Amino acid sequence: MTKRIRVPDFDPRPYQLPFYKAMDSGLKRAVLVWHRRAGKEIACWNYLIREATCSRVGTYVYFFPTSRLGRRILWDGANKDGKRFIDYIPKELIRSANSVEMKIELVNGSVIQIIGTDMIVNVGINPIGCVFSEFSLQDPKSWNFVRPILRENDGFAVFNFTPRGKNHAFDLYLMAKGNEDWFCEKL
C-alpha cells in the first residue's frame, strides 16, 4: 500500500504564486521585497522544502542574519495557526534532525540547515539552494561567499526582506529589477 505525502503541505497565497511560477520556469535567482505579514518566510521555507525533497539531492541552506534569529523564527517558530515551521517537512521524509546545528537530513539524502550569516566564515558548506532571509540585515559579504558555489552547482538563491533604507539589499533589488535572469517583486 502506498501512502501519498503532500510536499510541501502549504497553499501559497495568490500573490505568492508569481514567485513559484518564476522559479519553476527555470529562474535561479529571486528578490522578494514583501511587506510585513506578506508571508515571506512561509513561502520561501516551503519552496526550499519542496526543492530539497522533490528536486535535486543536496544541501539547502536557509540563512538568517544570526543563528539565534533563525532558531527563533524557523526552528522553534510557528505560523499564526500554531503549526511549527519545522512540521512543514513531512515526518516520513526526515531521517534525522540535529537541534544544535539546526540541521535536518532527509531520507533522500538532502540536507536542510538553518545558519546565521554572522557565522558564515565557516568553510565547508556546499549548497545547491539558499534563502537569504531579511537580507537587508545581513552582512553583504555572505552573498559574495555563496555566489560562486551556487554558480558552480547551478543552484538557486532567494533573497527576502522588508525595506530598511538604501543599503546593499536595496542595491540588489535595483539590479534584479532590471535583470531578466532574476525574479523581482516588491509588494
Strand content: 15-25%
Query: Which of globular, elongated, flat, extended, rod-shaped describes the shape?
Result: globular
The string of secondary-structure elements, in order, is HEHEHEEEEHEHE
Distance between the termini: 45 Å
Nearest-integer average pLDDT:
92
Radius of gyration: 16 Å
Report helical residue fraction. Answer: 25-40%
* Sheet with the most strands, sense and barrel status: 8 strands, mixed
User: Number of helix segments?
Assistant: 5
Low-confidence stretches are none
Structural class: alpha/beta
Number of strands: 8
Biggest sheet: strand arrangement: 3-4-5-2-6-7-1-8
Can you give a write-up of this model?
The termini are far apart. The protein has helices at 17-24, 40-54, 67-75, 141-153, 168-177; strands at residues 29-33, 59-64, 94-98, 103-106, 111-116, 127-133, 156-161, 182-186. Helices cover 29% and strands 24% of the residues. Strand 6, helix 4 (141-153) and strand 7 (156-161) form a beta-alpha-beta unit. The protein contains five helices and eight strands, in the order H-E-H-E-H-E-E-E-E-H-E-H-E. An eight-stranded mixed β-sheet has the order 3-4-5-2-6-7-1-8, with helices on both faces.
